[in-house]
Design a protein that fits this description.
The complex is a heterodimer.
Chain A (H helix, E strand, L loop, with lengths): L3 E11 L3 H12 L4 E4 L16 E2 L11 H11 L6 H20 L14 E2 L9 E2 L5 H13 L5 E3 L2 E9 L2 E9 L5 E11 L20 H8 L4 E2 L4 E8 L13 H4 L3 E3 L23 H8 L14 H13 L9 E4 L10 H8 L1 H11 L8 E10 L2 E2 L13 E3 L16 H23 L11 H17 L6 H15 L3 E2 L1 H18 L12 H25 L8 E2 L12 E7 L5 E7 L5 H9 L2
Helix pairs in contact in A: 1-4, 1-11, 2-3, 3-11, 5-15, 9-10, 13-14, 13-15, 14-15
Chain B lengths: L3 E10 L2 E10 L6 H11 L19 E4 L2 E4 L14 E4 L6 E3 L2 E2 L2 H7 L21 H11 L6 H5 L1 H4 L9 H12 L9 H6 L11 H5 L6 H17 L2 H8 L1
Parallel strand pairs in B: 1-5
Antiparallel strand pairs in B: 1-2, 3-4, 3-5, 6-7
Helix pairs in contact in B: 3-6, 6-9
Classes of the chains: A alpha/beta, B alpha+beta.
Chain lengths: 608, 245
C-alpha cells in the first residue's frame, strides 16, 4: 500500500507563479497557515517569461488615463464576453497592486520626475504598462518570491498534484507526489487556491514551458467545477520561427510598442491593409502618425501593429499563407529601422529591449539593432479556465478558488497584453484573502475535513500503473507529441467544423494510447513518469477546447471559424461552460452573460 | 555541419554513477537542451533533467558542458566541437539527486538568512516614492539574476571547501547587494555580511562573473562594493583610533 507524507494547512496554494505567490502572501497576511505546492523550483514559473509590462491606470505618463478607460479597453479587447465584475475590479485595483510591488522592492523603470514609467501596448488607449525593460515578469516573480519567503509560508517544490480531495462536495485538500523521491504526499487544507497557469503544451508551437499542461483546469474539472471560455486560446502574433529549436519562444509586443514594424517578404507594411471597424477611429492610417504615437505624441493614433493580438496573428497567418512570408515561414519584425528616425538608435534598442537583443544574438545569431527578426504566431495564453465568482474567485466547488491564467473571466475572448500580470496580482490577492476567510469561517464547527483514504490509495495506485507496463508500453513523449500535432493542425488559429470533429476522434484515440503508456526505471526524478501523468490533464483540456470551439459557431476574438467567419450578436451574449457529467462525459453548454449594471454600461458607451 | 553527434551524459544518483553515450541526429540551430530532449524522448525516457523556459530566463537547465558551467538552453551546438563527444555533467557543487538534477535547496534556505527588504517611509502623501532612473539602473543589473546558481557552482569556497554553513556565495552576495544598494532600503546588513555571511572568504577570483549567463558584473559591481562597506565600517584605521581614544 503506497505511503503518504501528510501535511495540514488552512490554505493550500497550488502553483507558485505570480498569482499563486500573491495568493499565498495574502493568505499568510490574514493569519492563515499556508502551504504552496509547485511543479518546478521556486521562482521558475512562467511568470518569468512575461516581458512587456503590467497594465495599471496609474496615469503617470498620460493623465487622461483612469480605471474607466482601462475597464473599457479590457472589455473591448475581450469582445464583451468578459466577466464585467472582474474587469471592473481589475481596472480599479491594478494601480494599488503595482504600488504594493514597489513597496516590496520591485524596481520599475522611471519617468523623468521619478515615478513609475509606463509604455504603450496593443489595445490600451494610453501608455499603461509599468515595466522593467523587457523583463517585467522576472522582476515581479522575484519580488513576490523574496517577499513571500519571509512570511512563513511552507513551499513544496517540484511536486505534481494528482487529485483534489472532497468531502461532502467541499474541497479538503489535494494529493500528489514529489519529483525528487517520487513519494506520495497529502496536503490537507480548509481551502485550496488553484494558480496553475496555462495549457500551452497542448500545442506544438508554444511559448509555454513543459509545466503548462492545464493541471489546475483538469483537477477542478474532475472535482466537479465548471470551466469557461475554453475555446479562446491566444496565439501571440510574434514568436520566434527560427532556428527551429527556439520556434515559439516569445518576442515581446514591446518591440512594436517601441516602434517596431511588421513587413512581408515584399517589404510591405501589411498591417495597414485591414483594420477592424471596432478600432478604425483609434488606429493611424499612415506610417508617420503611427511613428509619432510610439514616440509619445498624445494626439497621434496608434499604428496598426498595436492592434489586438488575435487580429495581428491572423494577418500574419494570411501573409504567410498567401506566399508573402519569410524564408522560415514567418514575417519580418523590424526595429532596426528606427535608426532612420532616432540618434543612437542602437543603444536605445539595447536599453529598451535588452532580453530581446540577448535572445536573438545568442540563439539566432542575429543583431536586432541591424537586421529584422523573423516572427510568426505562437500559442501563448489561455483566456479560458476555471469559472469563478468575480469578487471572491471561488469556483462552483465550495472552498476551491482559482486565480491568474487558470481562472477564466477577466479577458473574455481575447486578452490585452499587460493585463495578465495585473490579473495575477489583483486576483491572486483576492483569492488569497477569500480563501483565508473561507478557511476561518469553515474551519471549526464540525465542517467536513475527512480525507477519503480509499480515494487516496486508488489515486496512488493509478499513478503507478505505467511502471507495471515498463518500456513495452506506449512512449509518453510520443503520445504528447502526437496530441500537440493534432491540436496545432486541427484546432489552431483557423478552425472548421470538419477539422475539429477529426480532432475529437484523434483525442479519443490518444486517450486510449495514454491509457497504455509505460515507464521504465523507478520513481525518483523520472521525467518520463511526469510526462505520462501530465497527459491526463492535457487530454481533458484539449477536449474541452475542441468541444467549446465547435459549439461557438461564430468568429470572435481569439476564435476564428472559417465556416462562420463573422461575429454573431446572439453568441455575443453567451459564455460556454464545460463540466463533467454524472457518467464522466464532458458536457458543454451555452450560458447567458449576466446583465451589466447601468453604471458600467455607461462607461463602455462613453469610451466607444 | 555534422548530422549526428555523441552526448556523453552522466547518469546516476547519490550512490554513484557513470557516463553513458548517446548518439542522436543534430540540425542547424540546435542547442544542447534540444539534443538532450531528443535523447530523452527516443532513447532514455527516464533521463532526469530540469528545464522550463528554454530561453535563458528561468535558470533551470544549469549543467557542466565539456567542463564549463552553462545553461543547456543557451549553448548552441555550433559553438561546440561535435567531432568529439559532448560531455554533460550535473553541477559539481551541489549534491546530485539524479542524472543532471542536483539538490539546490541550500540556496533557498541560505537566502532567508539575509535580512529582507525594508523600505523608507513613502516620499509622497499618496504612499508612493520618487526614484531616479540612474539610481534604479545600478540595482536593476543585480535583479537580472535568474538564479541558475552557476556562480555558486564555480565558487571555490563552496565547490572546493564546502563552506555552505558559513558563506552565502556569489548569488546571494548579489542578492544582498541589490538590497543594500536599493534606493529605498533602510536595513543595515553590513555587520551580517562580515560576521554571519563571511564575505571575507571571497578573494575575488572572478570565476563567478565569468560564468554568469546574464553578464552581471558580480565581483566588481556587487561583491567589491559590499567588501568596501565592510572595510569602512570595521577596518577604517581612523575610526579604530577614535574607538580606542
Amino acid at each position: 500500500m503506497p505511503e503518504f507524507q501528510r501535511f495540514s494547512y488552512d490554505v493550500l496554494v497550488i502553483g507558485a507563479g505570480g498569482a499563486g505567490l500573491r495568493a499565498a502572501i495574502e493568505a499568510r497576511a490574514s493569519g492563515a497557515k499556508v502551504g504552496v505546492v509547485c511543479k518546478s523550483l521556486l521562482g521558475k514559473a512562467h511568470t518569468v517569461m512575461a516581458e512587456g509590462g503590467i497594465a495599471a491606470a496609474l496615469a503617470n505618463v498620460d493623465d487622461r488615463d483612469n480605471w474607466r478607460v482601462h475597464f473599457a479597453d479590457t472589455m473591448r479587447g475581450g469582445q464583451y464576453l468578459n466577466n464585467w465584475r472582474m474587469a471592473e475590479l481589475h481596472a480599479k485595483e491594478a494601480p494599488e497592486c503595482v504600488r504594493e510591488l514597489e513597496a516590496w522592492g520591485a524596481l520599475f523603470d522611471r519617468t523623468k520626475d521619478g515615478r513609475i514609467l509606463q509604455r504603450n501596448f496593443g489595445g490600451h488607449k494610453y501608455p499603461r504598462l509599468a515595466h522593467v525593460g523587457d523583463r517585467t515578469g522576472l522582476e515581479m516573480i522575484r519580488t513576490l518570491q523574496d517577499h513571500g519567503i519571509y512570511t512563513g509560508m511552507e513551499v513544496h517544490m517540484e511536486c505534481t498534484v494528482l487529485s483534489l480531495l472532497l468531502d461532502s462536495g467541499r474541497v479538503v485538500g489535494a494529493c500528489g507526489y514529489d519529483r525528487e523521491k517520487g513519494l506520495f504526499q497529502l496536503w490537507q487544507a480548509k481551502a485550496v487556491v488553484l494558480a496553475t497557469g496555462g495549457i500551452g503544451r497542448a500545442y506544438k508551437i508554444t511559448s509555454n514551458s513543459w509545466e503548462y499542461t492545464g493541471d489546475g483546469l483538469a483537477l477542478a474539472y474532475n472535482a466537479g467545477a465548471e470551466l469557461q471560455e475554453m475555446e479562446f486560446v491566444q496565439f501571440h502574433p510574434t514568436g520566434m520561427v527560427w532556428p527551429i529549436s527556439v520556434r515559439g519562444i516569445l518576442v515581446t509586443e514591446g518591440v512594436r510598442g517601441e516602434g517596431g514594424v511588421l513587413r512581408n517578404s515584399e517589404g510591405r507594411r501589411f498591417m495597414f491593409d485591414e483594420i477592424p471597424d471596432l478600432y478604425k477611429d483609434s488606429t493611424a492610417d499612415n506610417e508617420e502618425e503611427g511613428w509619432r504615437y510610439t514616440q509619445g505624441d498624445r494626439n497621434a493614433r496608434r499604428p496598426p501593429e498595436l492592434l489586438t493580438r488575435d487580429h495581428v496573428a491572423r494577418c500574419i497567418n494570411r501573409e504567410v499563407k498567401a506566399g508573402r512570408g519569410t524564408p522560415h515561414g514567418g514575417v519580418f519584425l523590424d526595429i532596426a529601422w528606427i535608426k532612420e528616425r532616432l540618434p543612437k538608435a542602437e543603444e536605445h534598442i539595447k536599453r529598451k529591449l535588452p532580453s530581446m537583443y540577448h535572445q536573438f544574438k545568442q540563439l539566432a545569431d542575429l543583431d536586432i539593432t541591424k537586421e529584422p527578426m523573423e516572427v510568426g504566431p505562437t500559442t501563448h495564453y489561455m483566456m479560458g479556465g476555471i469559472r469563478v465568482d468575480g469578487d471572491s474567485q471561488m469556483s462552483s466547488v465550495p472552498g476551491l478558488f482559482a486565480a491568474g491564467e487558470a481562472a477564466a473571466g477577466l479577458h473574455g475572448a481575447n486578452r490585452l497584453g499587460g493585463n495578465s500580470l495585473s490579473d495575477l496580482v489583483v486576483f491572486g490577492r483576492r483569492a488569497g484573502r477569500f480563501a483565508a476567510e473561507f478557511a476561518k469561517k469553515n474551519g471549526a464547527d464540525g465542517a467536513p475535513t475527512k480525507v477519503d483514504e480509499e480515494q487516496l490509495q486508488a489515486t496512488a495506485k493509478a499513478a503507478l500503473v505505467p511502471f507495471d507496463r515498463g518500456a513495452s508500453g506506449e512512449n509518453p513523449y510520443q503520445v504528447q507529441y502526437d496530441l500537440q500535432e493534432s491540436m496545432q493542425d486541427l484546432v489552431g488559429i483557423v478552425r472548421t467544423e470538419n477539422e475539429m470533429q477529426q480532432a475529437l476522434e484523434k483525442i479519443a484515440q490518444l486517450q486510449a494510447r495514454a491509457d497504455r503508456v509505460g515507464i521504465a526505471g523507478h520513481r525518483q526524478y523520472n521525467n518520463g513518469w511526469h510526462t505520462a501523468i501530465d497527459l491526463a490533464s492535457l487530454l481533458v483540456v484539449s477536449e474541452a477546447i475542441t468541444r467549446a470551439a465547435l459549439l461557438r459557431k461564430e468568429s470572435r476574438g481569439a476564435q476564428f471559424r472559417e465556416d462562420f467567419p463573422n461575429k454573431d450578436a446572439e453568441w455575443g451574449k453567451h459564455n460556454i461552460v464545460v463540466k463533467r457529467g454524472a457518467d464522466g462525459e464532458m458536457l458543454v453548454e451555452k450560458r447567458a452573460i449576466p446583465q451589466m449594471p447601468e453604471e458600467l454600461k455607461a462607461v463602455v458607451a462613453e469610451m466607444k | 555541419m555534422v548530422t549526428q553527434a555523441m552526448f556523453r551524459i552522466w547518469r546516476g544518483d547519490s550512490a554513484g554513477g557513470g557516463f553513458q553515450d548517446y548518439v542522436t541526429p543534430v540540425e542547424e540551430g540546435m542547442v544542447v537542451l534540444d539534443a538532450v530532449h531528443r535523447v530523452q524522448a527516443q532513447q532514455a525516457p527516464d533521463l532526469a533533467l530540469r528545464w522550463n523556459c528554454k530561453a535563458g530566463k528561468c535558470g533551470s537547465c544549469s549543467a557542466e558542458i565539456n567542463g564549463m558551467p552553462k545553461l543547456m538552453c543557451m549553448t548552441r551546438l555550433s559553438n561546440l566541437n561535435l567531432e568529439m563527444p559532448v560531455i554533460l555533467e550535473p553541477m559539481h557543487t551541489f549534491p546530485v539527486i539524479r542524472d543532471l538534477v542536483t539538490d539546490v535547496s541550500w540556496n533557498f534556505r541560505a537566502k532567508k538568512t539575509i535580512k529582507e527588504f525594508k523600505p523608507r517611509s513613502p516620499d509622497m502623501p499618496d504612499g508612493t516614492w520618487r526614484m531616479q532612473q540612474a539610481d534604479v539602473e545600478r540595482v536593476q543589473e543585480f535583479r537580472k539574476c535568474i538564479e541558475c546558481f552557476l556562480c555558486q557552482d564555480v565558487c571555490h569556497v563552496l565547490r572546493e571547501h564546502h563552506k555552505e554553513d558559513e558563506f552565502i556565495g556569489p548569488r546571494l552576495l548579489v542578492y544582498a547587494a541589490a538590497l543594500e544598494m536599493h534606493p529605498l532600503d533602510n536595513e543595515d546588513r553590513v555587520s551580517d555580511l562580515r560576521k554571519k555571511h563571511n564575505i571575507g572568504y571571497c578573494n575575488i577570483t572572478t570565476c563567478c562573473r565569468k560564468v554568469c549567463p546574464e553578464s552581471i558584473t558580480i565581483t566588481e559591481n556587487a561583491i567589491i562594493p559590499l567588501k568596501e562597506r565592510v572595510v569602512d565600517r570595521f577596518f577604517d584605521p581612523l575610526k579604530q583610533l577614535f574607538h580606542i581614544l
